[in-house]
Amino acid sequence: MEPAAPPALPPRSAQVAAALAAAGIPGEVHLLADSARTAAEAAAALGCEVGAIANSLVFLSDGEPVLVLTSGRHRVDTAALAARWGRGPLRRATPEQVREATGQAIGGVAPTGHPRPLPTVVDLALTDYPRIWAAAGTPHTVFPTTADELLRLTGGTLLPVVGDQPDGR
């Protein structure tokens, strides 16, 4: 079931919608009646598999924020991902660091619309889904997209984010 497109978006979500339009990404931002703060909440609200939710997680690597867009079915293996990505150790950003890096709060971090672009990884497992959903700047807004669109939108790198499976699935 697709949510109805809202007549007016929250300011952060309007920024995300503008960034999508500027990048030529056709996904329209949707306002959900219930929170989509977690992958499970988003999947329930959208009627899709939890793996089709793109979680936007902010980490710090060598003191700099980086973004990991992971399938809702995965937990990021930070050591394995840092090694694959060729970065220093990854540690979760605090809520304050997330807001400073993205301008958005945890639970609503979009892949775009940040004050400046962030180095980004897109989870290889997201390619398993023809349509995925990502947050659009608030815990109540989302947009449909694909892994290819996320790569184009973020300039990201496609990598597995789990440690024990070589193909990341």
UniProtKB/TrEMBL annotation:
Protein name: Prolyl-tRNA editing enzyme YbaK/EbsC (Cys-tRNA(Pro) deacylase)
Domain YbaK/aminoacyl-tRNA synthetase-associated: 35-153
Pfam families (alphabetical): tRNA_edit
Organism of origin: Kitasatospora cineracea
Domain of life: Bacteria
Lineage: Bacteria, Bacillati, Actinomycetota, Actinomycetes, Kitasatosporales
InterPro entries: YbaK/aa-tRNA-synt-asso_dom_sf, YbaK/aa-tRNA-synth-assoc-dom
GO molecular function per UniProt: aminoacyl-tRNA deacylase activity
